[in-house]
Amino acid sequence: MGNSEGEEGQSQTQTEAEGGNGGEDGSQHQAVVVDRPVRVYADGIYDLFHFGHARSLEQAKKLFPNTYLLVGCCNDEITHKYKGKTVMNEQERYESLRHCRWVDEVVPDAPWVITQEFLDKHEIDYVAHDSLPYADASGAGKDVYEYVKSIGKFKETKRTEGISTSDIIMRIIKDYNQYVMRNLQRGYTRKDLGVSYVKEKRLRVNMGLKKLREKVKKQQERVGEKIQTVAKTAGMRQNIWVENADRWVAGFLEMFEEGCHKMGTAIRDRIQEQLKGQQVRGLIYDWDGDTDDYDDDDDDGYYYDRSEEGENIDGEDEDLDENGE
Q: For the whole prediction, is pTM greater than 0.85?
């Protein structure tokens, strides 16, 4: 990175003034920048990279007039072990940082806790981060920046309120059903989204009902606007139109109910006639000798089989001949 003589002198003066001496003898933490940009290091997870991340990196970049900003990003293995699962994988997070205008170099596979060996390897002059203690889940200390703070190489940046990766994830969870339905409509399958068959159907039904309510509401608004327009044109009050509409609706419902009643009565009579006809045909063709199965008060007679009656008469004549009577 190029630099003018004025920038070099300003960088040297400001670095020595702000860096200061960290040790009691004044030699351990003395500023070392003389003829090069100040190498500032910032690190993090940078999941779902957002403008809060970008602002913190902007602050780190502008700590000195001539700054070379290195940004370390932890890989998936370390992040999942000490912080938890991320939405973006390590390669996606690295690539997001490379497209930030304030970043000069991305350091992949960054360590969870910064050591002197890491500082020497990358020739880091200062480490930039917000001042809140960041719990060291690895167990090495209470704060992952405890060491760089102790040697005077820590520079504070400010957090951006109202935005964080956790906040974004909470927004998604809050409106989970809407995002699932949106992706289903865009062609994703329920298996892609990890949604059960029942869940998918329920979401589709709920979304259909929601759209129907919205259409009804819009229709009501349009009807209301038309009523107001007509009322103004005719010089009538809106409530008069509403009353007339109520009477019209009531009259229509009354006529509809009467028509339904007549239709129901006609259908019932027709069914009764068909049933009665079936009963008559059953008496004629399906007689089984059990008269208790029929309750036809108009039919007091019985159906006789004339052939059987003839046989009985012939039998009686034979008996008379044998007895001589």
A: no
